[in-house]
């Protein structure tokens, strides 16, 4: 289980988009794509086989390294560290993520 997963609410803590808050759209090996964060301009050639691709300059979200992203804690309204612990439910232990500042569980059990 990774600390940051698709759909998490995160804050970018370093780089040109520092302070931006958004949802994680995609997780790669060591990077995450944050909705509306780390925007770049990309020149795209037109593709006649795809009518929706007319070409031109397109604005996209680029991946941000995992070390430059932190979870957003809605209780403290700040970026927060994440830890792992095991919780017993129905006789079996399950690994869950939690905020280290207030021990609030992120994952639903």
Automatic annotation (TrEMBL):
Give the UniProt keywords, A-Z: Ribonucleoprotein, Ribosomal protein, RNA-binding, rRNA-binding
- A Pfam family hit: ribosomal_L24
Similarity section = Belongs to the universal ribosomal protein uL24 family.
Q: What is this protein called?
A: Large ribosomal subunit protein uL24
UniProt GO molecular function: rRNA binding; structural constituent of ribosome
Listed SMART domains: KOW
CDD domains per UniProt: KOW_RPL26 (cd06089)
Q: Name one GO cellular component term.
A: ribosome
Gene Ontology terms describing biological process:
translation
Q: Which PANTHER family does this chain map to? A: MITOCHONDRIAL RIBOSOMAL PROTEIN L24
Limits of the KOW domain:
3-30
Q: Source gene? A: rplX
- What does the UniProt record say this protein does? One of two assembly initiator proteins, it binds directly to the 5'-end of the 23S rRNA, where it nucleates assembly of the 50S subunit.
Q: How does it assemble?
A: Part of the 50S ribosomal subunit.
């Amino acid at each position: 289980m990774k600390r940051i997963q698709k759909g998490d609410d995160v804050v970018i803590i370093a780089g040109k988009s520092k302070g931006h808050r958004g949802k994680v759209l995609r997780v790669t090996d060591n990077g995450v794509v944050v909705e509306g964060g780390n925007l770049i301009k990309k020149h795209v050639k037109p593709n006649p086989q795809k009518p929706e691709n007319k070409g031109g300059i397109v604005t996209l979200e680029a991946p941000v390294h995992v070390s430059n992203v932190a979870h957003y804690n809605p209780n403290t309204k700040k970026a927060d560290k994440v830890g792992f612990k095991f919780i017993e439910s129905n006789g079996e232990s399950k690994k869950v993520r939690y905020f280290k500042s207030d021990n609030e569980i992120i994952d639903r059990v």
